[in-house]
Amino acid sequence: MVYLQEFEYNIGAKNDPETFLQAIKCNKSNLWYNAMKKEIESMASNGVWDLVELPIGAKTIGCKWVFKTKKDSLGNIERYKARLVAKGFTQKEGIDYTETFSPVSKKDSLRIIMALVAHFDLDLHQMDVKTAFLNGDLEEDVYMKQPEGFSSSNGEHLVCKLKKSIYGLKQASRQWYLKFHGVISSFDFEENIMDQCIYQKVSGSKFCFLILYVDDILLASNDKGLVHEVKQFLSRNFDMKDMGEASYVIGIKIHRDRTRCILGLSQKTYIKKVLERFRMKDCSPSVAPIVKGDRFNLDQCLKNDFEREQMKNIPYAFAVGSLMYAQVYTRPDIAFVVGMLGRYQSNPGMDHWRAAKKVMRYL
Fold it and tell me: Domain Reverse transcriptase Ty1/copia-type, which positions (predicted)?
């Protein structure tokens, strides 16, 4: 679920390299190489692996480079990022991993905290955990091939014995959550019983909420001093980036007018990417996502080979999923029609597709 949602709000990156060779042969090769070098240095400073001989009977998992152009809320390029990812799909349960479950904060919790921030005029700050998954301690013996382009010059036959969880491992997100939970609990933060990624610290009349979404952290407090204390504590335990007052988190723009106690959430950039992905960028707008007289039923589903051929290359389920992501965070106004469209994902017809496009026109 973590990877699916991260993909959803990062939708639309089409020109990033997909392989190591593409990265070093493109016109931005220096930028991508520096990003890869920075990632390897981060791995070394975190003591992620040791180079060892592969034990007899043990098997290695592969790894690959994943490239991403990071952009701000306005779509401007912030930096070029290279992530070394293990090919966790080759792991065997009971050998390379056991438990994999890891919670993330719920959308409802985020909106409730934002409402409290607006109502009580709380300070709202954001922090980012650099290479978050590398903080998780690995309990199993996992051996990985050396990363492409950065093999040891005097030990190409050696393999990486992982000491820390790495992106792509099935248990990586779980190990990171367990590590973070242990650290933050030692600073008198209590976990919410209904949402495991919401924490609260109370000190006299001062309080602080902490929202964890994988590696993004939001801090909401009625005391600037307490926020500073929490930031210092986190920075001592993890490699953190202080983003200051929160303005853009998990693809959501946060607008605040503290004089009027107003806070707004917007996914404008994400919605633009969705429209571009489905070639709806220059469409004419619709006044409503659904109007009186619009009907959805099983008679509109596919009935013959001609209709199936028509829908063959139409990414209906992907479109509905993209609309759902906007709906659950910032656009409850499309909840009814998206719920209706979601009923026909297994066998959608052209009428359902036209209705999905109408929702995009409305957005």
Answer: 46-292
